[in-house]
C-alpha cells in the first residue's frame, strides 16, 4: 500500500496532530456520496484497529480501513492554499473521473 503526502500536506497534518495531543495518525477513507459516487474522508484518528492498514510517509502515519484501501492505493495527497481558501487535494490513479468541485470521484 502506498499513500503519499506532499511536503505541504505533511506539514499541515503534523500541525493538526500536534494540536490534537492524542491523535496517532491521519485516517483516510472513502464513502459513497457526492455526484460522482465516492468521496474522500480525512480525519485524525486516536486508534488503529486490527483490520486497518498503516503506512508512514513524510513522518505521518496514514491509517486506512480495509474497505477503503482498494480505492486509495497509490493516491497522493496535497495541501493547497489559494487566497482565503485552503483544502486537501488528491491525485488518485484509481479515479476514472472526478466531479467539478473535486469532492467526489468514480472508479
Question: Which key features would you list for this structure?
Answer:
107 residues, alpha+beta, Hypothetical Protein Aq_1857, Chain: A, 6-stranded mixed β-sheet, 2 helices, 9 strands, globular
Word description of this protein:
The strands form 2 sheets. Strands 4-5-2-3-9-8 form a 6-stranded mixed beta sheet. Strands 1-6-7 form a 3-stranded mixed beta sheet. The longest helix is centred in the N-terminal third of the chain and has 14 residues, at 7-20. Helices cover 17% and strands 46% of the residues. The chain has 107 residues and is of the alpha+beta class. The chain has helices at residues 7-20, 69-72, and strands at residues 4-5, 25-33, 37-45, 53-57, 60-64, 76-82, 85-91, 97-98, 104-106. The mean pLDDT is 89. The protein has one domain: HesB-like domain (Hypothetical Protein Aq_1857, Chain: A), CATH 2.60.300.
Give a concise summary.
The chain has 107 residues and is α+β, with helices and mostly antiparallel strands. It has helices spanning 7-20, 69-72, and strands spanning 4-5, 25-33, 37-45, 53-57, 60-64, 76-82, 85-91, 97-98, 104-106. The protein has one domain: HesB-like domain (Hypothetical Protein Aq_1857, Chain: A, Sandwich), CATH 2.60.300.12.
